[in-house]
Amino acid sequence: TSPGLACAAAAAPGAGGAPTVFSRIIARSVPAAILYEDDKCLAFRDVAPQAPVHFLVIPKRPIPRISRVGPQDLLGHLLVVAARTAQAEGLADGYRLVINDGKHGAQSVYHLHLHVLGGRQLGWPPG
């Protein structure tokens, strides 16, 4: 099992409202290479990149999982920010968006996040 899958298997959704690493990045108590920020979201480089370009887009308001998103949530905004940041990062030839959900989806941090990966030809199937 890869270290990422082991982290996902051990992760617990909603551990008593404890702050996640992403909420600590938003609060600036954990450093991150921030690429974009507005009042709704934050985009920053992944600390363990899986492609030459690998960044995350997260909502500032914590939403644990994509499967628990309500109609009021701003998923469209997150997708637009992902696309614009990908363009700014030089991913004109394409990129992949990934959202992991739950244990079997290899979600290791229970704060919704979009992975944007590019900068090389990605394989298929992905997992």
From TrEMBL:
<feature type="short sequence motif" description="Histidine triad motif">
    <location>
        <begin position="111"/>
        <end position="115"/>
    </location>
</feature>
<comment type="similarity">
    <text>Belongs to the HINT family.</text>
</comment>
<dbReference type="InterPro" id="IPR011146">
    <property type="entry name" value="HIT-like"/>
</dbReference>
<dbReference type="InterPro" id="IPR001310">
    <property type="entry name" value="Histidine_triad_HIT"/>
</dbReference>
<feature type="active site" description="Tele-AMP-histidine intermediate">
    <location>
        <position position="113"/>
    </location>
</feature>
<feature type="domain" description="HIT">
    <location>
        <begin position="21"/>
        <end position="127"/>
    </location>
</feature>
<dbReference type="GO" id="GO:0003824">
    <property type="term" value="F:catalytic activity"/>
</dbReference>
<dbReference type="Pfam" id="PF01230">
    <property type="entry name" value="HIT"/>
</dbReference>
<dbReference type="InterPro" id="IPR019808">
    <property type="entry name" value="Histidine_triad_CS"/>
</dbReference>
<protein>
    <submittedName>
        <fullName>Histidine triad nucleotide binding protein 2</fullName>
    </submittedName>
</protein>
<dbReference type="InterPro" id="IPR036265">
    <property type="entry name" value="HIT-like_sf"/>
</dbReference>
